[in-house]
C-alpha cells in the first residue's frame, strides 16, 4: 500500500501517461495472495488536482475528494474510448416522465434517427403490435424433463431422432431422464437446449402460425444464436447440429485446459467492476499461470453482469468484493470461462466446420451477440460465429437495439422459445414495457 501512495505523489510531478507504466509495474509487486488488493482504513485524500506536463494541452485533473485509489484505477484502466462507447448499455439520466423510463434510451426523442440504436433493427412501417420478435435461450437453462410436453407437436420426435444420430447419443432420453450431472456437461447441454428451443417453435407454429409470419427480428443467447440462425433459414437443422456438436466439444476441451469459471455480479453506480477484473488478471499473472483472463462475459441488464476467468481470479474478487464495492456475487454451475480469451482454442475448430457448411442469407434479421446488430451477409456470419465463443455476449445492448423506440410507440409481441424463462426476466429489467407483451413458450 506504501507504493500506491508513492504513485499518487509522483502524479504531482509527472504526466499521466508516464505514471501509467509505474502503476502497472508497481501493481504486480503489490498484489499477493496474503495481502488484499485494497487495504481498508488506509485510504488517504489526494490533492484536489494533479499537476501534469505544462506542454500538455489537455487538463488532466482528479476529482475533488478522490482517494489515491481512484487515481490508480483511472491510470490502470485498459478500456479505450471506443470500447467504453461500444460497451455502454445503461443510461442514468433523469427521466422526464414515467414513460421515459423505458422509451427514452441514450438519445432524446427529437434526435437524428442515424444516432439511434433502433437503426440496427428491422422496423417495417406497420403497427408494431402486428409484428413479433423471437428470443432463444442458451446453455444453463436446461433441466431434466425438458421437451416432454412438446413431443406431441409435428416434427419434434423427428428432430430428436435426427439429432441423436448426428451426435452419437440418445438426446431425447438424456433430456427427459438425465441424470443432471450428464445433461449439464457442455457437450450435452448445448445440443439439448438447441433442439428443445426448436421444439418450442413447433408448438408456436402449431398454435399461433401468424406469429412466425410477422416476425421482424430474432436473437439467441450464446448457443441460442445458432438456434436463431436455424429458425431464420441460414442453416439447415442437420448442419446446425453438426456445428453445435463441434462447438460444444471444443468449448468442453478448452475449459479443461485451464481451471476457470463464471460468476454473476450485482453492482451499483459506485462499484468498480472493470477495475476488479483488471486487478484480478494482474494477480493471476503474478502467480505465473500459463493462460490468464478475467473480464465481463455477459451483459445482462443494468447493474448486473456475468464475469468469467481463471478460478484464481474469481476467488480473488470474491475475497476482495468490498474493496471494489460489489454488491452480490454468485458462482455459476459451469466448468469454463465461456466468452473470454480462455475459449480461443475452441474458435478454430468451429471456423473450420463453418467452412464446410452451406450458409444462406437469413430470411429474418438475426442479431449477433457480438454487437447487437443483425447479420447483413453470409460472410459476416462465417466470421463472427467463431469470434462469439471468446467475445462477450452483449445481450443488454441487443435489447436496446430491438426495443428502443420513441415515446408513445407500441412494442412488438415477444416470444421466448426454449427451456426456462430467463430471457423474459432479463427483458423486464431492461425494458418493462416490452416485457408487458412477452410470452414464454417453454420447452
Amino acid at each position: 500500500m506504501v507504493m500506491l501512495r508513492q504513485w499518487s505523489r509522483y502524479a504531482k510531478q509527472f504526466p499521466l501517461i508516464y505514471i501509467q507504466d509505474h502503476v502497472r509495474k508497481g501493481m504486480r509487486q503489490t498484489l499477493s495472495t496474503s495481502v488484499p488488493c485494497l487495504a481498508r482504513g488506509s485510504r488517504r485524500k489526494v490533492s484536489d488536482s494533479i499537476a501534469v506536463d505544462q506542454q500538455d494541452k489537455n487538463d488532466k485533473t482528479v476529482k475533488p475528494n478522490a482517494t489515491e485509489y481512484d487515481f490508480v484505477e483511472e491510470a490502470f484502466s485498459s478500456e479505450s474510448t471506443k470500447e467504453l462507447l461500444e460497451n455502454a448499455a445503461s443510461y442514468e439520466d433523469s427521466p422526464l416522465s414515467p414513460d421515459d423510463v423505458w422509451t427514452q434510451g441514450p438519445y432524446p426523442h427529437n434526435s437524428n434517427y442515424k444516432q439511434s440504436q433502433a437503426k440496427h433493427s428491422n422496423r417495417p412501417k406497420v403497427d408494431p403490435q402486428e409484428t413479433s420478435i423471437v428470443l432463444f435461450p442458451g446453455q444453463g437453462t436446461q433441466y431434466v424433463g425438458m421437451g416432454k410436453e412438446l413431443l406431441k407437436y409435428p416434427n419434434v420426435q423427428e428432430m430428436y431422432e435426427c439429432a441423436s444420430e448426428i451426435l452419437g447419443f440418445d438426446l431425447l432420453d438424456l433430456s427427459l431422464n438425465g441424470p443432471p450431472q450428464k445433461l449439464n456437461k457442455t457437450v450435452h447441454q448445448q445440443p439439448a437446449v438447441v433442439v428443445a428451443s426448436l421444439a418450442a417453435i413447433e408448438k408456436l407454429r402449431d398454435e399461433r402460425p401468424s406469429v412466425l409470419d410477422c416476425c421482424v427480428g430474432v436473437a439467441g443467447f450464446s448457443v441460442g444464436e445458432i438456434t436463431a440462425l436455424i429458425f431464420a433459414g441460414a442453416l439447415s437443422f442437420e448442419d446446425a447440429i453438426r456445428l453445435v456438436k463441434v462447438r460444444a466439444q471444443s468449448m468442453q476441451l478448452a475449459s479443461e485446459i485451464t481451471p476457470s469459471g463464471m460468476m454473476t455480479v450485482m453492482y451499483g453506480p459506485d462499484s468498480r467492476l472493470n477495475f476488479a477484473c483488471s486487478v484480478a488478471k494482474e494477480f493471476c499473472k503474478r502467480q505465473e499461470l500459463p493462460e490468464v483472463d478475467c473480464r465481463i462475459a455477459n451483459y445482462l441488464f443494468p447493474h448486473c453482469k456475468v464475469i468469467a476467468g481463471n478460478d484464481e481470479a474469481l476467488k480473488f474478487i470474491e475475497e476482495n468484493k468490498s474493496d471494489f464495492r460489489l454488491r452480490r456475487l454468485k458462482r455459476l454451475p459451469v466448468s469454463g470461462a465461456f466468452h473470454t480469451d480462455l475459449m480461443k482454442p475452441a474458435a478454430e475448430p468451429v471456423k473450420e466446420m463453418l467452412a464446410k457448411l452451406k450458409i444462406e442469407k437469413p430470411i429474418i434479421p438475426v442479431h449477433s451477440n457480438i454487437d447487437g446488430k443483425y447479420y447483413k451477409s453470409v460472410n459476416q456470419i462465417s466470421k463472427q460465429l467463431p469470434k462469439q465463443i471468446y467475445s462477450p455476449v452483449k445481450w443488454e445492448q441487443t435489447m436496446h437495439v430491438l426495443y428502443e423506440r420513441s415515446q408513445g410507440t407500441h412494442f412488438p409481441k415477444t416470444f421466448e422459445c426454449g427451456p426456462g424463462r430467463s430471457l423474459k426476466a432479463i427483458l423486464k429489467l431492461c425494458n418493462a414495457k416490452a416485457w408487458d407483451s412477452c410470452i414464454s413458450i417453454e420447452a
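DSSP finds 19 helices and ten strands in the chain. The first strand starts at residue 132 and ends at 136.
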